[in-house]
Each structure stands twice: as structure tokens, then as C-alpha cells.
Design brief:
This protein has 163 residues and is α+β, with helices and mostly antiparallel strands. It has one domain. The strands form 2 sheets. It has a 4-stranded mixed β-sheet. The protein has a 3-stranded antiparallel β-sheet with strand order 1-3-7. A hairpin with a 6-residue loop joins strand 5 and strand 6. The relative contact order is 0.26.
């Protein structure tokens, strides 16, 4: 499918919002450490807030320690995206919703490698938080017609500032 959407990213105040360094160095649900990167974006501000709450909980950090954060609003136009929000698509690729929500990322990482090699530019997936959806963009796979562009950034001191 094609995708044209706003998407949101949170980072530390000093990090480039389009950086994949963390994903490459540590791995993520949809990318394999040191093998290939992915840019993780929330498809709504509600999903972004849920992801931030989840990240704080995993790290054992209070909001006063986790913040400030840089919030980037991006515009994404992708030519070839796979949508794992759809049960039939997950089944075709050997995934379940439980796999996507699991703390064990190996199955998702394996599928992501195959999806990426098949020429997809990104994976849309339901958030493991249960709130909204996210996208993992493989920036090195973007076609000439595709883009991920920062529309605006701002620093926020708390969750309530993300509206």
C-alpha cells in the first residue's frame, strides 16, 4: 500500500529526529542490531504519548527525569508499505498480534528483514501499548518518490505539553 501521513517522533533534545543511530546500535522490534536501521514514528499524538509512557516504564524513570524531550512532527510519503494492523497480512507473513506485542522481538526482526529485502519502505503496525499505530521506516529503501520530512520540532517538558 501507499501511505501519506503525518507522523510523530520523540527524542532527546540533542538528537536529530531522523537519526537511526539508536536503532542500529541497539536493535528494535523491526530492525536487527547493526544489520539495518529503522526510523520509528507514531501515527498519532495519542500513540506517541502511549509510547513515551511505555518507554518511561521500561526504563523505570519518572516523568521529571525522562523529560525534556524533542517532539518532531513529520510528513511521510511512502510508495510501498506493508500494514500489519491487518490480521490477514500478519498471517501471510507468519505473525500474530501477540508476536507484535511481545517483549521478545526476534520474530518481528526476522520478518522485518524479509519485508525489507522484498523492497518495502516501511511497516505499519499496531502499537504494543495497545494505543494506535506506529510505522518503522527503512530510510535506505526509500524510492525517489518517497520522503520523510520534518515539518516542525519543539521541546516539551512533560506529557501534558504534547497536544
Amino acid at each position: 500500500m501507499k501511505l501519506k501521513s503525518k507522523a510523530y517522533r520523540q527524542t532527546s533534545p540533542t538528537r536529530d529526529p531522523l537519526s537511526q543511530v539508536g536503532a542500529i546500535n541497539y536493535g528494535g522490534r523491526w530492525n536487527i542490531k547493526e544489520a539495518f536501521g529503522a526510523l520509528y514514528l507514531a501515527l498519532s499524538k495519542t500513540a506517541l504519548k502511549a509510547e513515551i509512557k511505555s518507554a518511561m516504564k521500561r526504563a523505570g524513570l519518572e516523568e521529571s527525569v525522562y523529560f525534556p524531550r524533542k517532539i518532531a512532527e513529520t510528513s511521510i510519503i511512502l510508495s510501498r508499505v506493508i500494514d500489519f494492523r491487518k490480521a490477514e497480512t500478519r498471517k501471510k507473513w507468519g505473525l500474530t498480534l501477540a508476536d507484535i506485542q511481545s517483549l521478545d522481538w526476534h520474530k518481528c526482526q526476522s520478518v522485518a528483514g524479509k519485508v525489507r529485502e522484498a523492497g518495502y519502505e516501511g511497516i505499519v503496525f499496531p502499537s504494543a501499548t495497545g494505543v494506535g499505530a506506529n510505522i518503522a521506516v527503512f530510510r535506505d529503501r526509500l524510492s525517489e518518490k518517497s520522503l520523510v520530512e520534518i515539518m516542525s520540532t519543539r521541546e516539551v517538558a512533560s506529557l501534558k505539553e504534547i497536544a
